[in-house]
Amino acid sequence: PIDSLVRKKVFISKKVLADETDILKNAEFFQTKPKKLNNDQKVSLDKIVESVKKNINLKPTYFWNNRKWQNRNLSKAIQKALALNKSAIMMVPEIALTSQTIERFRSRFKEKIAIIHHKRSSGEKTKEWENILSGKAKIVIGARSSIFAPIKDLGLIILDEEHDQSYKQTDEMPSYNAKHLAIMRAKFSNATVVLGSATPSIESYYNAINKKYTLNILSKRIGKSNLAQVKIINMKEEIKKSKSYFSNDLLEAIKQRHEKGEQTLIFLNRRGYNTSLHCLDCSYVFKCKHCDITLTYHKKENILSCHSCGFKTHTAQNCPECKSSEYIKYKGFGTEHIQSALHAIFPNIKTIRIDRDTTTQKHSHETLFKQFKSGKADVLIGTQMIVKGLHFPSVTLVGILNTDGALNIPDFRSSETVFQLVTQACGRAGRSTLPGEVIIQSYMPENDTIKLASHQDYLSFYKTEIENRKLFGYPPFTQMAKIVIASQDEKKAGHYANFFRDKLIKNLTSGYKIHPVLPSGRAKVKDVFRFQFLIRGKNMPLLSSILDKVK
Ligand SMILES: [Zn+2]
Ligand SMILES: [Zn+2]
Ligand SMILES: [Zn+2]
């Protein structure tokens, strides 16, 4: 079938030389000992193994788990599948952040593991695909695209951190959700699907309690597995006392950790030094000339850069609009700024920063994480890369700066995203024998999402959120499609979006709500203008067949 698709030019056939280099050949592997399971864990694991053995596709199994459970059990389940001569796909949100898991797998399995993700060179990818096709690799670990791996005798598909939005590909064609594909692929191949997360997505938890998935709640103290003390600092008050980015409590706590030889994480989901440059005289904002996005100031390189298309330009002394030079001001702070601000306050405290700017080279994540873990720095500063997944036994303090900004993003999932990030960040503190502390600096200290996340109270958050979704008709109560019309000609894009929308309205059966056409959240990217409208309804397969007809 692939050949005919190539002939029809749906696919383009390309010859790529296989590349023998191994992504992890420089990583150190240590033999890890499998740990004992408790009774609940054993029962749920047995159920999975049973369905793999019988070669039947059951409802997806959902594990609301904690990290520890996950680490222990996923590899056990795979082990059993292999023993039954089945192969397995294990999906993770971001492979670069999964080095610890991969190390564990490598040390435990003699079988070849294929690792697939989009950042690998085409030579590396080809090599891995050959290993999968020939049956040499029985385990595939990868990001969303690994769901397409041509593996034979598939018995088990695991989707780890199921809530992560990177499982969805929307900015590139083909547009797909790897979670849905996993469930479909399992159905076709009579395989078993396991979904898991410590902070389930609202839709998945809804499916789980409505019996679309088999729900397993795996820890008696789910979400409370760490006993971190959480404090929310009201930054509106704090900013009156000092002009610092850090509250006094956070500074004091960092100092104490340093004296005790313990480590700190500081999480801020914005990189760069300043997030924008303004003229206060005429209120001009420096934006990318290709995108409708403010430019970020990077101090080390002394440039303004666009985080969407990579465009770089010199910083300016004068306003291009009013030529004033007195009122050019930088605003907003990112991780680079936080790092130098902390150095200015505590010259003796060593820091490591992990964000997209410090990890441009291959393996730089692993190197930096290892340096921090081995104690080469006292404080790790970073974007969401540092809160996803990794385990640092000596971290006893987590500082969370300005996560609440993301609550203002006009997206019905923004509360969910913030809840997950804050919960995950809180979970980084005191995960071993040392007690942990979390300090959340917030400009919205009364916000429910922040408060519930600080208590790691998923169920209350779910109850509030599902009510809102119901009230406003958002998923899981309806399905939603976003139609994006893009063109280098702004007028054309807008016109066509409206034209297409009108045509659609004429062809659509009742039961759909079509929103008005608006410029996209990022209205201009790489010189292309984008307009969009949303469609909500209950029958998306029907919608997509109508879309096919209308376009
Ligand atoms: Zn940058
Ligand atoms: Zn100006
Ligand atoms: Zn740009």
Question: What do you see in this structure?
Answer:
- The chain is α/β, with parallel strands linked by helices and 551 residues long.
- It folds into four domains: 14-217, P-loop containing nucleotide triphosphate hydrolases (Rossmann fold, 3-Layer(aba) Sandwich), CATH 3.40.50; 229-271 and 334-469, Rossmann fold, CATH 3.40.50; 274-332, no CATH class; 479-550, Alpha-Beta Plaits (2-Layer Sandwich), CATH 3.30.70.
- Helix content is 34%, strand content 22%.
- It contains 16 helices and 24 strands.
- The chain has helices spanning 2-7, 39-54, 67-83, 99-108, 122-133, 178-188, 202-209, 235-241, 248-260, 335-345, 364-373, 414-426, 448-454, 458-472, 490-507, 540-550; strands at 61-64, 87-91, 112-116, 137-142, 154-159, 168-169, 176-177, 192-197, 214-217, 229-234, 263-267, 274-279, 296-298, 303-305, 312-314, 328-333, 351-354, 379-382, 395-401, 437-442, 479-487, 512-514, 518-525, 528-537.
- Strands 3-4-2-5-8-1-9 form a seven-stranded parallel sheet, sandwiched between helices. A six-stranded parallel sheet has the order 10-20-19-11-18-17, with helices on both faces.
- One zinc ion is lined by residues 279, 281-282, 284, 319, 321-322, 324.
- It catalyses: ATP + H2O = ADP + phosphate + H(+).
- Its EC number is 5.6.2.4.
- InterPro entries: DEAD/DEAH_box_helicase_dom, Helicase_ATP-bd, Helicase_C-like, P-loop_NTPase, PriA, PriA_C, PriA_CRR.
- Residues 76-218 form the Helicase ATP-binding domain.
